[in-house]
Amino acid sequence: MLQVEPLIFELSKPGRRGVSVPECDVPEQEIPSELCREQLPLPEVSEIDVVRHFTRLSQFNHAVDINFYPLGSCTMKYNPKINEVLARLPGFAAIHPLQDPRTVQGILALMYRLQNYLAEIAGFDAVSLQPAAGAHGELTGILIARAYFDSIGDHGRTTVLIPDSAHGTNPATAAMAGYKVVEVKSDARGNVDLDELRRLAGPDTAALMITNPNTLGLWDEHIDEIVAIIHGVGGLVYNDGANFNALLGIAKPGELGVDIMHFNLHKTFSTPHGGGGPGSGAVGVKAHLAKFLPGPIVVRHEGSDPEYTWEWPAASIGKIHGFHGNVGMHVRAYTYIRMNGADGLRQVSEDAVLAANYLMARLRERYDVAYDRPCMHEFVLSATRQKQHGVRAMDIAKRLLDFGLHPPTVYFPLIVPEALMIEPTETESLETLNAFVDAMLQIADEAEHNPELVQHAPHRTFYKRLDEVRANRELNLRWEPQTREAVAASS
Q1: What CA–CA distance (Å, rounded) separates 193 from 184?
Q2: Backbone phi, then psi, for 303, in 5-degree steps?
Q3: In this structure, which topology does domain 344-472 adopt according to CATH?
Q4: What are the backbone angles phi and psi of residue 100, rounded to the nearest 5°?
Q5: Contact at 8 Å (CB) between 227 and 212?
């Protein structure tokens, strides 16, 4: 039985202080009554109790700095600490977005270079760093497409085609932008079905939102034909760049005919990810769409003072984020690119693809593989074989927690029954990958010979299996005093 520690409020003792505040040495001011409360029941605890409490809470959670985090399609890889060191430099961290450009030339130079690096890496002509996350970048890209068609008077574009293997946020993005969503099925090899695409594409097609490599972890073998079909009916091709970490230094979407793409700096370029942010979803476009990018964008006037300034694209869709985006993420991504260089970025993708194929090869004998061909940076298993013994994908995910490993994504993509979507990333060692394989093989044995053990997992975590549906529907964010016995019983 795990020892249940008291919560911070339960440690409170009247008169105990964590910090001593000196006597006020400035004139006291009356606080407006509407800003005052009669009571403010904060815990009265010492500094050491506070430190131990929050350190203990942090140890209840999994993190990429603790162990393997193979969350498919989310690229939860190690975040190099040099990124954090540089992002905290005063010239980057202690500035204000409304400062005169002359006083922030350093960060403007960094953002200008990052725009150009991203454009070069992906084969685009212009980039905006403003979007705050991947889905935000998607919306920005589709709003750019809408602005483009409005500018040429083509108002009959009412639909966006989305493959069933695309990223899950794509349909919501298209709907939010005012388009009708039309799904395109996959073929037997996990590619976009070309016959169905030809049937669906037409004069009402504004764009195809494709994720390539897709959420099955597969490169679409017909990307040239797909681009030709959409351009042939006058539409635009939007590539969801969530999986761009499989292509660095190998392929440039812009050179394959893609018109718009968002980058997930918090996935491909190692900036932190999770908890609702921070993120960054920079958007790249080809030349004919550059004037619609959200602004302002950093431009360079060589020899002028100041050298770097803000400029609005000629037909900008406007601001889509307060100020200039998540600038701290720009510093981290820039650092990652400079630390790796061109050859290092290519190795990032090569190692990610190698790791995914290695795991798939070692697990294919005990789990069903959704599409049996070489994958890119991730792959999808199906637990249909384990389901015959009463063990589902969710059970396998919960059992992995007992090994100190974060589960992969489950039940996505939706076109694979009992899906387990696994992405090892390029940052894990062979020993870590083998430990994951050993755990998965043991769970496969348990599913066959002792299914109840898996069905009731996890057994070693601080809290056991939760009723996740109820937790989502009856979210409780209010603390109430509990006895140690009650806390122990709830675990």
Answers
A1: 7
A2: 90, -10
A3: Aspartate Aminotransferase, domain 1 (3.90.1150)
A4: -60, 130
A5: no
- Output the tens digit of pLDDT for each of the chain's 491 residues: 344 556 666 788 888 888 888 899 999 988 898 888 888 778 888 999 889 888 888 888 888 999 999 999 889 999 999 999 999 999 999 999 999 999 999 999 999 999 999 999 999 999 999 999 999 999 999 999 999 999 999 999 999 999 999 988 999 999 999 999 999 999 999 999 999 999 999 999 999 999 999 999 999 999 999 999 999 999 999 999 999 999 999 999 999 999 999 999 989 999 988 655 578 999 999 999 999 999 999 999 999 999 999 999 999 999 999 889 999 999 999 999 999 999 999 999 999 999 999 999 999 999 999 999 999 999 999 999 999 999 999 999 999 999 999 999 999 999 999 999 999 999 999 999 999 999 999 999 999 999 999 999 999 998 888 888 888 898 887 766 555 555 555 55
Angstrom distance (rounded) from CA 308 to CA 283: 20
CATH value of 82-339 in 3.40.50.300, 3.40.50.150, 3.40.640.10, 3.50.50.60: 3.40.640.10
Cα angle 257, 197, 422; round to 5: 75
CB 182 within 8 A of CB 159: yes
Enumerate the H helices of 233-326 as residue ranges: 265-268
Whole-angstrom Cα distance, residue 293 to residue 315? 8
CA 287 vs. chain centroid, Å, equals 27
Q: For the chain, how big is the Rg over CA atoms in Å?
A: 26
Q: Which of these, 153, 199, 147, lies nearest to 178 by C-alpha position?
A: 147
Residue that is written with structure tokens 């294919």 in the block = 364
Domain residue ranges in the chain: 8-59, 82-339, 344-472
Residue 188: count of CB within 10 angstroms of its CB: 7
Tokens of 165: 């293997």
HEC letters along 150-214: HHCCCCCCCEEEEECCCCCCHHHHHHHCCCEEEEECECCCCCECHHHHHHHCCCCEEEEEEECCC
Who's near 484: CB < 8 A, 6+ residues apart? 4, 6
Q: Among all chains, which residue has been given the structure tokens 């994958």?
A: 375
Supply the angle between the helices 327-363 and 430-449 in degrees, to the nearest 10: 50
CA distance 243 to 365: 26
Q: Collapsing DSSP states into helix, strand and coil, what is residue 66?
A: coil
CA distance 137 to 141: 6
Strands 368-369 and 308-311: unpaired
Pull the structure tokens for residue 82: 């040099």
Query: Do 335 and 116 form a contact (C-beta atoms < 8 A)?
Result: no
Give the Cα separation of 265 and 248 in Å (integer).
13
Three-state secondary structure call for residue 478: coil
Nearest to 409 by CA among 227, 229, 243: 243
